[in-house]
Amino acid sequence: MLQAGGALGSYQVGVYQALQEAGVEPDWIVGTSIGAINASLIAGNAPQDRLPRLNEFWSRVQRAPQCDFRGVLPGFGDKWSFWRTLTHGIPGFFTPNPLAHAGDGFPLGADHAGYYSTAPLEATLSELVDFKLINRGSPRLTVGAAHVRTSQMTYFDSRRCELDVKHIMASGALPPAFPAARVNGELYWDGGILSNTPTEVVLDDNPRRDSLIFTVHLWNPVGAEPTTMAEVLNRHKDVQYSSRIVSQITRHQQAHRLRHVINELAARLPESERDRPEVRELMSYGCQTRMHVVQLLAPQLSHEDHTKDVDFSPAGIRQRWDAGYAHTKAVLEREPWVGQFDPLSGVILHEAAEYRALAAE
User: Fold this and answer.
1) What are the distances in angstroms from CA 201 to CA 21, 196, 198, 218, 271?
2) Residue 316: CA count within 13 A, CB half-sphere
3) Rounded to two decimals, what is the model's pTM?
């Protein structure tokens, strides 16, 4: 499961690299926004081409610094890069839409109402992603988007419909920066504005089955108290986009525990009772499956602030990529999902070491 988070998404590539090197290929990838983009690059290429395509995408969207301000004006280089991104966009990703500044009431049209055009991203994905391969269904791909007219979360799933580049564009159409994307005549915005971490689509899937789920988080749900306005802005984004992941997992743990309890109670009923239609209906709510949820958490870089999700600098991309790789290798070596667990637990969360350390402070 791949969270939304713009430039922070390079962390997800490091995660996938470590998984692939360990011979672990996902049979289902779920993503939102940048998570959907990375997911499409994985699902839309043969295994041997996945990392090269991911590398090609992230090479295209990095913004190299024009000037080196280190040692002269500390921190100014990051601000300069941020303002260049805002004013010029990102090659291969988005370009400014000048008409968006003609006034709030200027009639841009529903398909172009955004401060930037994402036509470059559509061209990039059309070149790097094989949607025919995605629609063969292996691995399964699911991307989340918000239906503009109804505020309903929609999951486009290669198991249930044929996906194309518009579905990925819809998942990443973050307003007001990017215009909504139209799919089957309807407009959609970035799924992250409703569910930045698409936990429910996996844990509520039916039929349920034993699973090892890697949830890749780009926004830190735990952090220090902010003492400056810069820290307030940074912490606000983390709180906003971490998507209440702790409470979501807790709810699923409770629901799946009840399914295991139902299953245990049903096993204690006499055979004559279990054969009654109304009892069989109640027993159908039971379940024996077990899902291990492994949390991976992108690090807080020393220089980052609230603009971190548009930090497409080569250094920022590389640091997060390397962190994702190192964190995943460490988790694969520990194999926390191996061992004895409470027989009534249907969802077992293995928290990231970084999250546990912050939560303990």
Assistant:
1) 27, 12, 6, 19, 35
2) 26
3) 0.92
